[in-house]
Amino acid sequence: MNADQSGIRPILSFVNTIRKNFKGILNSIKLGITNAVAEGINSKIQTAKSRAKGFGKIDNFKSMIYFLGNNFNFEIH
Asked: Which residues contact 25 (CB under 8 A, 6 or more apart)?
């Protein structure tokens, strides 16, 4: 018996999800890329957005994104 012949709704839903996203699943496995990187970048941008409130220029917002996106190591002498 195949999973799609089981008649069990959660299994059928799982099988349909795999079928719909099969190419993306394979690409993720082959390339080792997930959307975690995009989520991380989005998190940095949202942080910059909240910190840049009150600045009137888009350039300041962009600068804050670049600043938060780098791992600066400030040493105090």
From this structure: 18
For residue 14 the two structure tokens come to 């799982």
Question: CA 30, CA 18: separation in Å to the nearest integer?
Answer: 16
Q: Report the mean per-residue pLDDT for the chain.
A: 81
How is the chain split into domains, by residue range? 1-33, 36-68
Is 34:13 a contact under the CB 8 Å cutoff? no
> Is the pTM of the predicted complex or chain greater than 0.85?
no
| Eight-class DSSP state of 61 | H
Count other Cβ atoms within 10 Å, centred on residue 49. 12
One-letter amino acid at 38 equals A
